[in-house]
Amino acid sequence: MATYYDIFGQKVQYLSSDPANLTEGQVWYNSTSNTAKVQGFGTAAWASAAPMPNGLSGMSGGGSTTSGLTLGGDNGGGFPTWPTATQEFDGTSWSGGGNYPTAGNGIGISGTNQTTLLGVGANLNGPVSSGTASYNGSAWSAETSYPTGIGGAWGFGAETAAVFFGGGTGFFGGSPFPTASNEYNGSAWTGGGTMPTGRMNARGTGILTAGLSVGSNTATPTETTVTLEYDGSSWTAGGSLSQAGGRGAATGSITSAFYFGRDSSPNTATERYDGTSWAADLSMSSGHPGAGCFGTNSLSAIAGGFYPGVGTTEEYTGAGPVTQTITTS
Which residue of 45, 56, 265, 298 is 20 to 30 Å from 280, comparing CA positions? Predict the structure, then answer.
């Protein structure tokens, strides 16, 4: 029987820590943890994670899977309550975060971790708000108000380099749906590129100079397959979703994005974008429309959803290199 040396022409490395710049098939022994390891290739998978303490409907979420946060929403009852409490996720468990200044649904959000989050607007059980706030990891602070009251808008980019778009300025965040987008530099709003048509409940991901608007409701509850790409000044058409979606979740970059948690059936469906076209990916265990989400295209999480509000959390790990411990089993 061939040995590792026969196949690879070298002995297993004996190291005090896991090496950097690993290659697939590489084997080593970690003397600190007393374990033999191999660099393999893992398959994509969804897995259940710690449930949220309070399941809410119509939430927003931003950040990463180890520094995520959800805010807004209601308890989905006939006479709903609208908590200002936010909830933080560290990859393992949930804990209470700083209270958001405004209670409501349809709060737009941008940012890739808890210290770069920016929240915009809200549906205040009817009227809409222009309120804007940033998060420093523990507390929210008021920022310059959005140019108009709005609900159901969304954004992408960091607190000091963000663009927000879509949403409705009417009652409950409904019509009219403005086509204007607005950019924020950390202190002031300026006009951005004009979208081809107004939309609400689209989801955004990326950075100010290279971002996506994915899915939408043009007239609730009609969902669309539209994807638009933003270059920092103008919007252009991107590849269409395979299935229409609104109130979903989007993570990743303009060339490698992930979309999941849509309104339309099947609402467990997910899709992946390569910068040109969308393709089906692994389905979630349950539907999460209007949920809080955060992460990247290969490490994402989604929590909650409506109606009624649920506390279920699921985490996605994309296919790719993975370090595995060698065992005798």
Answer: 56
Residue 219 to residue 199: CA distance in whole angstroms: 8
Token code pair at residue 111: 């940012």
How far is it, in rounded angstroms, from Cα 248 to Cα 283?
A: 14
The domain ranges of the chain are 4-42, 47-317
Cβ-count burial 160-197 (b if 16+ within 10 Å, e if not): ebbbbbbbbbeebbbeebbeebbbbeeeebeebbebee
For the chain, the 3-state helix, strand and coil shares in percent, each to the nearest 5, are 0, 45, 50
Q: What contacts 24+ positions apart, CB below 8 Å, involve 267-276?
A: 269/243, 270/316, 271/241, 271/242, 271/243, 272/297, 273/212, 273/214, 273/227, 273/238, 273/239, 276/238, 276/239
List, for residues 155-208, the tens digit of each pLDDT value.
999 999 999 999 999 988 889 999 999 999 999 999 999 999 999 889 999 999
